[in-house]
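Example S7 (structure tokens).
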């Protein structure tokens, strides 16, 4: 899962990035509204953390432009605790949730997990796919009750496929959501990670749809 952070406070920007990367997310960062708007308009993100008070273009304006342009990714707004008007304006502009500063990092992580799950149609913090269980709170996957030992790339791949199970996901889409903007992307490496993941979870759970990509198929794995 790939997250965009738009925050002008360098320390908070860094702390958010470290927390999100530690939770298994791929993170891109911007420090002003113009750069943030550009990234959100040109790159695919699973969620955005957006501060209201930004230089060059404020967060409300960034969000309003995205929504007018049809960008529907979940947005978590950061607001000042005493500015209730910012919260109202953010929600009216299309924010999906907000957190007031100062905040606990665990709250931001929990709200982002919820936004990403809901956007993919999952209400519970645990996502099931046949014998597979993904606990989004602990970033842990189990197969028939046994914890899977996954690399960070394998976990990102599994997480994205399970969030979008039943859908055909192309190699390019997986590449865009597994790596940040500066990574030298090569969609051929996705085949390698899919192969490794299949050996750990069973060959039938990830279906290859010829010419289109992959589909997570919970019915194929049994229980």
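Recovered sequence:
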């Amino acid at each position: 899962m790939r997250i965009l952070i738009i925050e002008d406070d360098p320390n908070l920007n860094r702390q958010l990035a470290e927390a999100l990367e530690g939770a298994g997310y791929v993170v891109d960062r911007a420090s002003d509204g113009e750069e943030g708007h550009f990234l959100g308009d040109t790159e695919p993100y699973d969620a955005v953390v957006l501060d209201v008070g930004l230089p060059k273009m404020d967060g409300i304006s960034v969000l309003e432009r995205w929504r007018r342009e049809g960008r529907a990714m979940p947005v978590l707004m950061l607001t000042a605790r005493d500015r209730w008007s910012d919260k109202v304006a953010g929600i009216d502009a299309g924010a999906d949730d907000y957190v007031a500063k100062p905040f606990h990092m665990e709250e931001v992580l929990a709200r982002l997990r919820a936004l990403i799950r809901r956007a993919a149609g999952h209400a519970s913090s645990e996502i099931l796919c046949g014998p597979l269980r993904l606990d989004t709170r602990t970033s842990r996957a189990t197969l028939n009750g046994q914890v899977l030992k996954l690399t960070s790339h394998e976990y990102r791949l599994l997480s994205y496929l399970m969030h979008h199970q039943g859908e055909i996901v192309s190699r390019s889409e997986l590449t865009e959501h597994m790596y940040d903007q500066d990574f030298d992307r090569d969609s051929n490496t996705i085949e390698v990670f899919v192969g490794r993941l299949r050996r750990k979870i069973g060959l039938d759970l990830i279906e290859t749809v010829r010419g289109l990509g992959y589909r997570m198929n919970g019915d194929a794995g049994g229980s």
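Notes on this example. The chain has two domains: 2-119, 126-220.
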